[in-house]
Amino acid sequence: MPILAPRLKSGLRAIPRDQHQLYVGDSREGILLEVIPYLPLVRICTGTLTMQEIASHLAIELDLVETSIQRLIELGVVELIEVNRNQQSRWVILEI
Prior knowledge:
This protein is of the alpha+beta class. Helices cover 32% and strands 25% of the residues. The protein has helices at residues 35-44, 51-58, 62-74; strands at 4-8, 13-16, 21-25, 30-34, 78-82. The strands form 2 sheets. It has a 3-stranded antiparallel sheet, covered by helices on one side. A two-stranded antiparallel sheet has the order 1-5.
């Protein structure tokens, strides 16, 4: 079974607009999300950590991570990629 990790889709940026809103998108279109819980999750969605590792790293419940990541996938801003622990993943640049 492959190991999957969430990653912000290529070309998208995550930019906090204020204390409450986070813009995720490109220069043409995007979505606004609540800063909590999405900002720390979007920042860590680099395609190198599994959801369990993300939950451990951020010290939050796995259920919250899974639910939030699933919502980001449904919104089309995050994708799940297969993690090859023997190779380095591509870098994702985030403007935060």
